[in-house]
Amino acid sequence: MKPGPAASFRDEFAQEWPRVAGATLRAFGDLELAEDSAQEAFLRAHELIAAGESISNLGAWATTSARRIAIDALRRDAVLRSKLPLLLPEDSESLDAETARSAAESRLDLIFVACHPVLSEEQQIALALRIVCGIPTVDIADFFEQSEATIAARLTRARKAVSRAGVPFEWPTDADRVGRLNHVLTTIYGIYTLGHTAPRGPSLVNAQLTQLALTLADSMAAEYPNDTEVIGLKALIVLGEARQPTRVGADGVPIALADADRSAWGQRRIREGLALAARALPGGGRFALQAGIAGIHSSAPTWEQTDWASIATLYHGLKRVWPAPVVHLGSIVAQSHRGPAELEWAASALRKLRTGASPDFGRRVSAAIADVEERRGNYAGARNAIAEAINGETNDALVTYYRHTDARLADLARGGGPND
What does R_g of the chain's alpha carbons equal in angstroms? Predict the structure, then answer.
């Protein structure tokens, strides 16, 4: 079945957005003007298509329209004269060359552009996530585990900071790219995270974002083949994608890793990911260590044969280089699987971690508490934690999974199992 006009437009928009925004940014050197003009161009295209007109090459049409919109905006603001020196020669050859650039290269260029040193680290990453593929502000807020209003304000301050500094956004040199490498990797990691478990909507996964992250990681590995963090990030994504086919059942309900059909995992990708992880791990960086953890999960023949001791050791190292709440969560969960004696400690540690957590992260911690309490035999406590995980969850697939879990826990409780 062919996708409808709306779905087709969304797909083409996602493909062409970075090229249109990038071409406009190259021409004018003004980030806000480029973003606003590109958005307006695509909006006009959508209205024309909805009215029954056809656009044979959306990218080229939107690029030309965005340039015209930008020039009109400058004229309205009576500053065209001062902005003219920023314009690049606009001839058909340069336009054709820009149109011919691959989407991955364009997006990667835009990420490097957005990660400008005049901005703070969080501003760089938020801005890159916003302009690279138009990720909604509310989803970026989920990645940072902060409110939408906070991230919206951060994006506004970022644009104002660039304006105050009077620094046009320019394509960075090779040396600049090396200096921005860490923030670019974090941005790609953010894209994958938001795709691996979509913050909202009917599906667990946003495959468009996970594929984009994999493509960007491939490009980064080609550009920096000996950087262990680049290799580690690619390994992490490759291993995650190898297990992707078993994360959701035919009914769209998520499947826990413990219940996954490991024979359906992509073995070629697992071999590739394990080889990359082995190269990255000596670097000891946060992506290398995460790749090592993913590698242990991917190489375990069964859930019961998972080497939790090694995973706990890697998490201990990861906490030193990246003491983020999500890392502490993973560390506690890993330790809880090392034996029944660890369960009571894990339940207490998870409750402490949930105290003061953001709503989104708090729901993740509650889901982990439910698992620990179930293994302790405390089915009532597990159901309470599942209720907390459901409360406010905006991913419909996860809500369904939690409800199925709650029904199973209710059956266990009625069966006369131990209950604290």
Answer: 24
